[in-house]
Amino acid sequence: MTSGILIEGTFPYVFVLVSIVIDALVLKQIKWAKLQGAFRDSAVVNLISALVIALVSPLIIALGNVFLALLVALIVAWIVEGFVLMLLRKRPASASYLAALVANFAAFIFAYAYVFSFLLI
């Protein structure tokens, strides 16, 4: 399966919206912030990481393998979102990157489920 499936149709837009919701709920659960602050932080970090991923997407898509492309996108999102969370809340890097890792892991489970659904067809 080629990685082009990740940029076709509405998946990128739906994924950003789903990521914002999932990340916010995870950030709330790990007591990063109250619900309103978690949604604000999630929206900011996801929009910034989506922009960075969009800028490097030709390199990510060039990998050819959809699962490897998602892994690279997860790593890029983790690095960017951890840094932005650190700037937003003035928290230590370790706490920010751990929060970003947990939140992104949960959101990317959705992306992997989406890709696996095409294997079932």
* Alpha carbon gap, first and last residue: 12 Å
Low-confidence stretches: none
* Percent range for β-strand residues: under 5%
Order of helices and strands: HHHH
Structural class: mainly alpha
Biggest beta-sheet profile: none
The tally of helices reads 4
| Oligomeric description of these chains | single chain
Helix amount: over 70%
In angstroms, what is the radius of gyration?
Answer: 14 Å
Tally of strands: 0
**Count of distinct structural domains:** 1
Q: What would you call the shape?
A: globular
Quote the average pLDDT: 88
Walk me through this protein's architecture.
There is one protein chain. This protein is mostly helical and 121 residues long. It has one domain. The chain contains 4 helices and no strands. The protein has helices at 11-29, 35-61, 66-89, 93-120. Helix 1 packs across helix 4 (93-120).
Task: Offer a concise description of the structure.
The protein is mainly α and 121 residues long. It has helices at 11-29, 35-61, 66-89, 93-120.
